[in-house]
Amino acid sequence: MMTMFFFFLILVLSLHLPVSTQIVEGFSPGTTVSSSSYHQKTVSKQYHYLSNCRYLRIRLSSSSESVPSLYKEQERLLVDRGVIESDLMLNTGTPIVTSILKGAGTQAKGFTASSGMKSSDIKAASKHFVKELKKVGVVRVDNVIPDNIADELREYVFDLRKESEDLVSSGEVKPLARFANVLLKENRCDLTIPLEEDIVVDALLRILQKSPVGKMMSSSLGKDPSLYELSCLISDNGSQRQVVHPDTPCTSDDAAVLYTCFIALQDIDLSMGPTTWIPNTHTTVVHNLFRDEEKDPATGDSPKDTLLRTSPSVLGVLPKGSCAIFDSKLLHCGGANESDISRALFYLSFKNTGLGYPGNPASIRPELLSKYTLKTLEAELKKLKKKR
Length: 388
Description:
The chain is of the alpha+beta class.
């Protein structure tokens, strides 16, 4: 579907279509629809090719007046569809909770993030969480980093964001050198993170060595998975609800492609637009339903809308320092932030060692792409910490 979109985009650029026209998926090239004729069915039809991955893979050219307008129209379609999906899923969501591991120090007895977990508890917790992760596609793990590290890391990423925005505005660096492309970017950004900063080193060492996260990655993605993403999603007041999407396509049920760990850098409540995940949707059967938007003449429902309306979902209402780890094939979306507090999610993803390109570009600094595995990353972090 993205291939079809690129064909249409090239056609738009070559023909210099006027601002008021739109290419409609499913119509032959050259067919246009007036922007005044949109309604729910049209929105559902047109937004489809944009909703199959986290990122909108478009590089706009400043030389064409029609392209920014096209981009804005695509964003509008996604916002409209997000409202429709919000209504469909209105009564399906409950806050995500962490599963209890009986008899281990992690959940039954608790542990302090300041001191981390014992290696025996990390091993037991990892085994427990991996089993749940493979089954439902998302798990919550508490106390991954202590509050003081979360606070310092949050302050750092907001300073980095301001610095990066200034560098991009001045033309000193290209946008993709500091920011990844994110779905519905207004009041939302995906800020890629450098590795060398002290607070980043401290946070990553805690996450990978003093919590179950590192062991979970190595036990479920091969012996030495690759670091694929290192970034921070920031959602400000006024950010819109995203459409439901997977981060990578689901072409097989055999193995996970990526696991992503979202760490809350502040308490997240419902007003901040927490991430919504739909458990058990990381399978080819469900993805086939998700792609089917053909309306049933008798009911007026599509298999996709029925799936969204009837599937229980979980909301990323997380305490500071806790995380949600999810399969990249799982259906999910970011919510609309209606609070006065920006929602920051520091995150890292690891890729299955036995797989190639996962189907989605990585949110990571260019100089870090394909550079580290879990083992070499931990070694580099230890080296950086010793240099202080």
